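Known limitations

Files may contain more than one protein. Parsers should not assume a single record per file. Below, a two-record file is shown to illustrate correct handling: read the sequence, read the token line, then continue until end of file.
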Amino acid sequence: MIGVYTDQSSVRLDYVLRFLFNDLWNLEWKYLERIEGDVSEIVINYSNNHFRDAINISPSGWVAEKKIRTEYPPVSRKDEITVLFPNSSSIGFDIFSACFYMLSRYEEYLAHKVDKHDRFDPWDSFGHKNQLFDTPVVQVWANMLKEHILEHSQSISFHERKFDFLNTIDVDYVFAYIGKGIVRNVGGYLKDVYQGNLEKIGQRLSCHLGIRKDPFDTFDEILELPLNHKKKTIFFIHVGNYGVNDKNVPITNPMVAERVKHLGDYARLALHNSYASAKNVKLVQSEKVRLEAVSHHDITESRAHFLRFFIPSGYQALVENGFKADYTMGFAGMPGFRAGVCVPFFFFDLERNETTNLRVFPIYLMEATLKYYMNVDYSAAFDYFKKWIDMVYQHNGLFISLWHNDSLSEEGDWKGWNSVYKKVISYLIELTQKDEEMV
């Protein structure tokens, strides 16, 4: 049992302690009203007082507040790791405020640069400049605290998480050609004729005649995972209205609806909320209802199209519409640990100063980041995936693989990437089996 004494009680501190002790370590702990005399049990003293034999952590005041500050926290380096709120206490910094700053995405409530899609731009951010996205830094900090706890008692047993993975697929378009309707199909043929693309004309025609399979229909191959890993696959289905960046085939098309229902028989279905819904959050509800009506499944998980969402409004809309999990917490333009962790955590709404029941599943790297933002060729892509997978494995985290059904088509710019996907999935399965054999 770990006792925590503090004169800084707040919902923010409670949130951090529950993440560390409950979610990360599964340890028993309690608040202490006072510390008297010598400390015989493991006690964390989170106050400006000093107690002999306790783990003394001086508070910065950030987790005791209800407001949102407009300045960035002080930064230092400790054992080659960036720390926030440095001080002279036992651990050398206010670890609870530091963890809260990253988990709450405090920085994204402040004025920040955005990219061409109005998304938080990490490249010029406080987090990127201070290497806070390079590692699961919150878990690195947690290990520092863990070492201090073990110095006080070797008998305490920390729950060690096991590495695992999820295979997540964004379905921006169920089909490349099928189900697009007369206007879009005629437009497609005319465009191909104008460009002299005879190969694409033949491909389009053979799909419409049923001679060949639609190139984006890679779902059967995706579902070829071993039986014990099938439920680790989640398909995020785009059902939003047609727009400049929302060009899916209508879910009302019978062939599309049938394919979506089929996927729901073998894997989990989730909403790929539209590009437009980021600024018009009311669309989230209508898109959820639309997908539920077609799939006959309760939809409680989501990921935003283009990874385009805004904090806190995007998450608030999910909470208000009954979602339980979201998988958008990552960057489109670069790999990284956006919230400083490689395990799920609950969204804390800084604007309302409350913990929500929405569980956030962070992502670290998607295939489109390598191809479109980093100009990585498929022949070199696996090494990038392996680097980030190994980092998550080292911290007993959950690696969430993010691919698109069309990127596995072996068509156009994506030729060669299907083999990368297979190699990544095989490596993830290999690591999970390795952990199982060690038990």
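...continuing to the second record:
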Amino acid sequence: KSIFKFLIVGAILIYIFKGYIPQILSFSVSPPDNLDKFLATFIIKMLFFAFLIAVPLGLADFYFQRWRYLENLKMTKQEVKEELKSVEGNPEVKKRIRRKMMEIFNRRKAVKRVKEADVVITNPTHYAVALRYNPEKDIAPIVIAKGIGRLALLIIEEAKKHNIPIVRNPTLARSLYHSVDINQPIPVELYKLVAQVLATLEKYKRRYRK
């Protein structure tokens, strides 16, 4: 761009300079007494013309660059809108968002229900399953909350807050987590293991009361 502007200015100045060639050639034959004055005037005129040419070119270039920037900005905004439309309209993205929101909702709900538990079975940090067992209401121990990773840690913290017994049993914790849904009773094959945990806890409770 700079070279292009330079060429335009140069071409116009050369064109103007051509008008002075006959006068300059005549100096070679009979140099005038006021040659210095002529040269000074000539140089000032050339600079003046260069200025007159450069300013409009500079302004034109400035407004052109500004216009192009605004157009690119508009295009960028439009591209963002199109991208958002494509993302929002994508069934897979919607499905992932719904699943994530459901996970967050279930996580909060699970942590809140830990205070109802009689015991929390842990892995001790990777898995946590909260069990409730009320012989008068429940046909078998019920899983009221479960989680892995961060959710497991939150369940354990909530259990500590409400003084719910925490039992470390990695095998049982994994089995309960993978085989029982929330609000469902434990399967028959896990009765014995869970019963042992509950019996041990009941024994400790009796000793504590004494």
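Parsers that stop after the first record will miss the second one. For reference, the second record is described as follows. The chain has a mean pLDDT of 78.
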